[in-house]
Specification:
Length: 367
């Protein structure tokens, strides 16, 4: 082995999580050392300026524009690896939890799922990449009791299956961006699963994740590590910025800066953010109650994440709204980093949940 080969092999210990959002790109590079995930570098670059709009606003850029932005980010963050995983936006995917016939033979079960999936996916199966996850067996027993169906351990019973579909065009778009930026992706993952890996510790009891993005807010209930319910709210952090802009008669750029600096802690100066978050929380509470009513189970806690979740004092405000435990996500707790960086990482953590979750999966695959 040559000296250069040795250097190359060492670099392979580092892996990159790439989060392509509607308002920004984020990357997190981790390496595994003594069984621990070590933070090497991270970075974020707003897409707004590349589309002629302001920082924090959702965009609709071409693959070529995003590619150039990603190249800039990789350079600014001093990323040293090409090995990565990539997020797929929740809005560009389809998740559906369905009850399907159970078959003991895996091959037959696969056939049943693929045939039944056609009923739930509003486009030809040939146009999407289809995947699924069968809910844990304990849940199937409860389902059998609830619906008075056959024992799920025998043919003829029913099981709950999480169907996941992504349009081929979306995957082609992302693949074009990644290859154009000189990266090599081993997987593409819907952002919801990356977030779960990074911020959800509870493995059994139901937990709600409230992911405040730029254009929308995603709410999902996680149970047994699986998405039991997902819902999108058409209000996001860009609406909060606009509310600050209007109530303070300042530009969008200034409003975005105020949001980051003051957050809800400055609500006395501008009430716009509280009004928008009130709408988001009201809809999230409706989803929570719906889940608890239908499933006869209590959601034990709420985790706030996403770019909008960085707003200061949001956690305290949410605790006044919900009657259960609320915390702001800090995915960097799952990584080793210098002590002096901890306060910064805690503050920006919610924004990087997806990128951290993807990088953690890459590390797990590299065993």
């Amino acid at each position: 082995m040559s000296f250069l080969d040795f250097l190359f092999r060492k670099k392979e210990k580092s892996f990159l999580g790439v989060d392509i959002g509607s308002s920004s790109l984020k990357v997190v590079q981790l390496r595994k050392e003594r069984g621990q995930a070590v933070l090497e570098t991270y970075g974020e670059l707003a897409l707004g300026p590349y589309s002629g709009s302001e920082v924090g606003q959702a965009t609709n850029l071409s693959a070529e524009q995003i590619t150039e932005t990603l190249k800039d980010l990789l350079r600014e963050a001093k990323v040293t690896t090409k090995n990565c995983g990539v997020s797929i936006p929740f809005a560009r995917s389809l998740l559906s939890l369905v009850v399907l016939p159970y078959r003991k033979d895996p091959a037959e079960q696969k056939t049943v799922i693929e045939l039944e999936a056609r009923k739930y996916i509003p486009m030809p199966i040939s146009e999407v990449q289809l995947d699924w996850f069968i809910m844990p067996r304990a849940e199937q027993v409860q389902l059998a009791e609830k619906e008075s169906i056959h024992d799920a351990s025998q043919d003829g019973g029913n099981i709950e299956v999480l169907l996941v579909a992504v349009h081929n065009d979306e995957l082609s778009f992302l693949q074009k961006v990644i290859s154009g930026a000189g990266l090599a992706a081993s997987f593409y993952e819907i952002e919801i699963f990356s977030t779960i890996r990074a911020v959800v510790e509870e493995q059994v009891k139901p937990v709600m994740v409230l992911d405040v993005g730029a254009a929308s807010t995603k709410t999902y209930v996680i149970e047994h590590g699986v998405v039991a319910l997902s819902h999108s709210i058409g209000t996001g952090s860009q609406d909060i910025t606009r509310a600050i802009s209007v109530s303070n008669n300042v530009s969008i750029a200034m409003a975005e800066a105020l949001k980051k600096k003051e957050g809800l802690g400055g609500a006395g100066a501008f009430g716009g953010p509280e009004f928008v978050f009130s709408r988001i929380f009201s809809e999230a509470r409706r989803v929570l109650v719906q889940y608890e009513t239908v499933n006869k189970k209590s959601v034990t806690s709420i985790i706030l994440t996403g770019g909008g979740g960085v707003t200061k004092e949001l956690g305290a405000y949410a605790k006044k709204t919900f009657s259960i435990d609320v915390r702001v996500a800090n995915p960097f707790l799952k990584t080793e980093a210098p002590a002096f960086m901890r306060s910064i990482l805690e503050e920006i953590g919610p924004e990087f949940a997806v990128a951290v979750g993807i990088a953690l999966r890459k590390l797990a695959e590299a065993r």
